[in-house]
Amino acid sequence: MPLEIVDLRFSYNFPSVIACKILRFVNYFSSTASGLVLIAVAVDRYRKVCQPFKTQITMTTAKIIIGVLCFASVCIAWPALVIYDINVVNISSAPGLNGYDCTTIRNEEYKVYISIYNGVCFFIFIGCITTLIVLYILIGKKLCHLKKFRFSSTARKSANVNYTPPTSESEIDANFRRFKPVVYAKQPTSTFIPLFAN
Q: What is the membrane topology listed in the Swiss-Prot or TrEMBL record (predicted)?
């Protein structure tokens, strides 16, 4: 981020060739390393969720993976030290008003290599995005399956709470007393007797 601020501050008046090369190298390195580390995190989550009983990534293994990914990022980003340079650009229609921009070399012999490098970076980007999408889709499907299995297991347990009939005489007697129907005594019917007859 600080180097990007410098690039924006000196858009057409970039101060140094070395700073230009370092800026582009750091951009490529950080972008590539971030993508590869995200894939490593996704793989670790996939193994934790979808393959919990297999060997997991330990702290030592994680450090080794990070080191390998950083080395791979350096190998991918180093051409930026070669193909970027300070180029003179015309910033106005007035003749003689030029600026200095940190961009790829304009020489004809470098165009093929620049195109190949950009194509390789593009395919690496597509590969990273595809891998992340596939891994997280598999993780999501597994989590949904586990959620449905837990819900069905809970419903099955609640449905399997059956009534156990009494077996011994004491249990039968206790059960009878518990559910013995209440019999209400029949009330006598009252008869109305008139006191005064016509």
A: Multi-pass membrane protein
d(CA 125, CA 30): 13
Closest CA to 103 of 14, 194, 3, 35: 14
The angle subtended at Cα 12 by Cα 25 and Cα 24, nearest 5°, is 5
- Average pLDDT of each block of 10 consecutive residues along the chain (198 residues)? 67 77 89 93 92 88 93 93 82 71 82 90 93 94 82 62 56 55 54 50
Q: Let me know: does 102 contact 84? Beta carbons within 8 Å.
A: yes
Round to whole Å and give the CA distance between 76 and 79: 7
Contact 35, 72 (CB under 8 A): no
Residue pair 104/114 in contact by the 8 Å Cβ criterion? yes
Residue 88 bridge partners (DSSP): 100
40's tokens: 């490593």
Alpha helices (H) along the chain: 2-9, 17-50, 59-77, 80-83, 111-159, 169-178
- For the chain, the C-alpha Rg in angstroms (whole number) is 40
pTM, two decimals, is 0.67
User: Residues 113, 60: contact at Cβ < 8 Å?
Assistant: no
